[in-house]
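We emphasize that the prediction below concerns an isolated chain of 337 residues; any contacts that depend on oligomerization or on bound cofactors are therefore not represented. The input was used exactly as deposited, without trimming of termini.
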Amino acid sequence: EPAAGERPAAAANAPAVAVETTAATEQPMPEFLLVTGTLLPNQESRVAAGVAGKVLSTKIERGSPVKKGQVLAELDTRTITANMAEANAMAQTARTQREQAKADCERTKKMFAQGAMSQAEFDRSQTQCLATQSQAEAAEARARALSVTYGDADIRAPFAGFVSERNVSAGEYVQAATTVATVVDTDPLRLELSVPESAVSEMRAGLAVEFRLAASEDKRFTGTIRYVGPSVRRQSRDLIVEALVPNEERELVPGMFATARVHTGNPKRVTVPSRAVRTEGSLHYVFVVNGSKAEQRIAQLGETKDGRVAILDGVKAGEQVALDPAQLVDGQTVKAR
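Result of the prediction step, given as a token string:
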């Protein structure tokens, strides 16, 4: 059997074969950029304790769903409660002193106006009034701060999601910066894509993304580009682009590797019916009918849509191509029908 592309000696003298032909035509065809990426949480927070104290109880486990504001852990509030009571009492005392100082200042103003007080005595009185007022404000501020601290003893989820890590247990003593739990938002997810420098100009928000996962090659998922990086990374010469991916069924998990296609546009391409393409190994062939001869050409294929395939190289618009060319050979005499 002759090799692909080789014209048999008898091909030109063989009887004419009837073939069905159609014209190659131009039409808009989808164009995709192939990239790889990783699924990331939409939000991820390592929730800090916020205050120091002993953990009384934890309300969650790894994998637990949480709502925004839900309690993750509770701290012992006995020391905070005592400090807050003391601060409130001191603030009340400072407010009483401030009111008394305010009345005293009004009296000294009248006495100074009547000439019953020297300038030096009046200045000392006014300074004391201001100092008493500042002391009262400081006491009230401390009481408010302790009130906030008391509220922080119930450590809450900053947003709705799932607990990926629980970092403390009952009985532990935590500092303000201690991570109590890690909460992730998994609906939607972010698909972080690495786009080569040559395709940077094609990237923009709103482009559709279709991707597959190594764990489920037969299933396709979709998303939409929302964030485009401001610059190309110097070492890898690529641009980071993020697509938002719906995940209501929680089927997708952060950290999964994805192979994706970004729909960059619909340029006009020469197309032929898929029936006109013959594939042998890694090569694709189209038979162009010129008069009564079939000319075999190697074709570079693009995307397929509605039964037609884009021909990036090998066929020109308007040329007649043979359909179902499985038995044709290069140079064979044909009769178009």
